[in-house]
Design goal:
With 196 residues, this protein is an alpha/beta fold. The chain is built from nine helices and six strands; from the N terminus they run βαβαβαβααβααβαα. Strands 3-2-1-4-5-6 form a six-stranded parallel sheet, sandwiched between helices. The termini are far apart.
């Protein structure tokens, strides 16, 4: 058995995240999918990032009715930037199972720029979800990925062109986000006036 870690800012979590996680669970015989909201991601501009507490609460609400989805606050509780290599080491020690990471094609393209990319590719497995406007075939032709092809698992997931930034933009412009994220998240966003 294996577990998959699904990291991201989840600002907010949306239906695309949930569909990808469920498809990965089914296709790769995972025991669980661990949603891990990022605390201080080194590659993001954090000035406009919603507080960790609110993002964590939104993920909890979104996954509470799925028994094979769990949440981890490990990265959120760290003061320093969160690096995937450290996350892999931590969870490899914690679980006696193979560790997968669920990422999008856009993140795959960026892995060579991450901290310890060779370590990640040699010791982790990546379930890569296709994303609109990203050619996985082109990305995989790069020399870096050719040498680590065995650890990359391309998932032909449903292509849903929804992003957290689009949801935030819609809210700002008073455009409906119905069906883009679960109703419980919409209610929470409205109650807390998160993106108003």
């Amino acid at each position: 058995m294996a577990i998959a870690i699904f990291g991201g800012t989840f600002d907010p979590i949306h239906i695309g995240h949930l569909i990808i996680a469920e498809q990965a669970y089914n296709r790769y015989d995972l025991s669980k999918v661990i949603f891990m909201p990022a605390g201080n991601p080194p590659h993001k501009n954090n000035q406009n990032l919603t507080t960790a507490k609110l993002r964590l609460q939104m993920v909890k609400l979104a996954i509470e009715d799925n028994e094979h989805f769990i949440i981890s606050n490990w990265e959120i509780n760290k003061d320093e930037p969160s690096y995937t290599a450290e996350t892999l080491r931590y969870f490899s020690d914690k679980y006696n199972e193979e560790i997968y990471f669920i990422i999008g094609a856009d993140s795959l393209l960026d892995i060579p720029n991450w901290k310890e990319p060779e370590f990640l590719m040699e010791n982790g497995n990546f379930i890569v979800a296709r994303r609109p406007n990203f050619s996985l075939e082109k990305i995989l032709k790069k020399v870096f990925f050719k040498t680590h092809r065995d650890n990359l698992h391309i998932m032909n997931s449903s292509l849903i062109d929804i992003s957290s930034s689009l949801i935030r933009e819609n809210i700002k412009n008073k455009i409906s986000i119905r069906y883009m994220t679960p109703d419980s998240i919409i209610k929470f966003i409205n109650e807390k006036n998160i993106y108003g």
